[in-house]
Amino acid sequence: MSRQEAFSTSRRGVPRFVIGGYVIAAIYALAILIPFYFVFISGFKDNPEIFGSMPLALPSQLNFDKFALAFERADMLNAMWSSLRLVVGAELLTLVLSYPAAYAIARIPIWVARWIELLFAMGLLVPIFALILPVFLLSVQLNMLYDPTYLVIFYAASRLSLSIVLLASNMRDIPIELEEAAMIDGANRLRIIYHIILPLTRSGMVTIIILNFIHFWNEYLFALILLPSDERTLQLALPLLRSERLIDYGLVAAGVVITVIPLYILFITFQERIVTGMLSGSVKS
Predict the structure, then answer these.
(1) 18-32: buried (b, 16+ CB within 10 Å) or exposed (e) per residue?
(2) Residues in CB range of 145: below 8 A, 6 or more apart
(3) Contact, 79 vs 236, CB < 8 A?
(4) CATH homologous superfamily, domain 70-279
(5) Structural domain boundaries of the chain?
(6) Which burial class, exposed, middle or buried, applies to 209 when counting CB atoms under 10 A from its CB (0-12, 13-18, 19+)?
(7) Sign of torsion, CA 230 234 235 241?
(8) Distance, CA of 94 to CA of 207 (rounded, Å)
(9) Is the pLDDT of residue 254 over 60?
(10) pLDDT digits (tens, 9 = 90+) for 3-16
(11) What pTM, to 2 d.p., does this model score?
């Protein structure tokens, strides 16, 4: 196919490859929205209606009893509070550790900085299941098994690689001349970071916070292993909605909707900042 044919336009003057891109994006959006729509409307249905001939049809009535029952049976308010405490603690610890490290990698002119960044990037290649045994044994040796503080520390450590790599890439987009001018005016490193770097990396920080929030909020395996039996996150509370003999799938769907609504609200609110932060450092100025 020639270049002229590849970039041929439709009757309205829109390139065909652009139309194809919109079609693929629409299909991808439907692949995401249809399952969520099915789970959402299933929260208002009984089992016969869910598994009937028209599973995607609207419910016969909008009854929020299953949502109320999900809150009651799984104690989801306490589970939500436990998840929120873990997520906020892990988010703060991740930022406190990753931000200075990313600044050092991006700004200190030593050859070893690139190798240190590469070492952090290699952490993204470690499969999470390979960490189960060492993380568990370490918690036993530190006498922190079933201590939520240990889970917060592990969450932060597990996300340092991504946080440092993205923040360092974001900081490299900031002209070094801004810092040099501030140093000439007598500003030290802390003031430069607080008054210059921090405001200019806000989009990157929002991206890191949202991505880490989604990871911490949805994490199930290590919370199951490391938390005490009397403290459950939302993901650990969901299995309590199942009964031994008959599963009310509408009740389970209501619980799933309750857990994912905060994520959707967060992502929709900050989606522009997330895209900006992800693209930072990808294009040379």
Answers:
(1) eeeeeeeeeeeeeee
(2) 136, 139, 226
(3) yes
(4) MetI-like (1.10.3720.10)
(5) 3-65, 70-279
(6) buried
(7) positive
(8) 13
(9) yes
(10) 455 444 545 556 77
(11) 0.83
